[in-house]
Amino acid sequence: MCKKLIYLTAFALVLGFRLTSLASAANIILVTETRDKDENGIQDDQGTIDWLLAEGHNVNVQMDNWKDLDDANTPAKLAELNKADLVIVSRACSSGSFDDGNEPANWDAITAPLITLNAYLPRQKRLKWVESNSCQSVDDILMAADASHPIFDGVELIDGMMVIAYDNTVGAGTTTFLATTDLGNGTLIAQTLGDGYTAIAEWEAGVEMYPGLGYVAGGPRLLFAAGTQEIDGPPPTTWGEHNLTAEGNQMLRNAISYMASAGQ
Q1: Angle at 107 (CA atoms; ends 101, 113), nearest 5 degrees
Q2: Residues of 35-48 as b/e, b for ≥16 C-beta within 10 angstroms?
Q3: Are 245 and 226 in contact (CB under 8 A)?
Q4: What burial letters (b/e) apply to 76-91, b meaning 16+ CB within 10 Å?
């Protein structure tokens, strides 16, 4: 009788874990571009794709499909993006792919939650989330601006505020951050310890992102700076390779859950 109870309890725990995992799976569109900067025959951000799949998410990858969000196919593309639980823009994208014609307005009007791993994207000359156009690539640890934010759930913060989120042995060893904390109507979540660059920040849906720039978030928006900065070398390094530590992965895991649920 006791053995049967133990087996039933174990089965219930496994089943509960499985159901929880399935419930947390999201339908994600990963916006990325064909990128093999180090010329090794492997897509530079393949690690990000593999990590998302290993997390149990349904990942829609249409390489280079989203470069033109200002053409005859734009209405259909916007409809597809808006059906996703979450849109993630890879660091392997060139921010210059987002600023032609009406593209900034079209991207900002998307109602689905959106996370950009690319810190170049929120700048004034791209999607106009912030007034600044400056980014910096450094190797640094992060400092929580709000340690109670769900992004830090299950993350062991050093002295209650710092975390080693990036692996500096990957690629060129640096990550690109937004070189300002003046976020307008955005909220700072984490910044680099040394220079205070913005690493993680969010903007609410329906709110003008930065007063005076005239752009309103169609859905929840999050900057989560991640992925390697590329250099030409020699030798050349990867562009946007997944470079998070275990703690950084936990933060991204939390960010995905947080943003996907915000769109429900």
Answers
A1: 180
A2: bebbeeeebbbbbb
A3: no
A4: ebbebbbebbbbbbbb
Tokens 């079209």 belong to 106
Q: Determine if the peptide bond prior to 235 is cis (ω within 30°).
A: yes
The model's pLDDT over 240-255, given as tens digits with 9 standing for 90+, comes to 999 999 999 999 999 9
Q: Which of 29, 129, 23 is nearest to 79 (CA)?
A: 29
48 by DSSP, 3-state: which?
helix
Q: Is 204's pLDDT higher than 90?
A: yes
Q: According to the model, what pLDDT value does residue 12 have? A: 41
The answer for 255, left when phi > 0, alpha when psi is -120 to 50, beta otherwise, is alpha
Instruction: Determine contact, residues 164/245, Cβ cutoff 8 Å.
Output: yes
Residue 7 φ/ψ region, left for φ over 0, alpha for ψ in the -120 to 50 degree band, beta for the rest: alpha
Paired with 53 in beta bridges are: none
pTM (2 decimals)? 0.90
Q: Are 129 and 215 in contact (CB under 8 A)?
A: yes
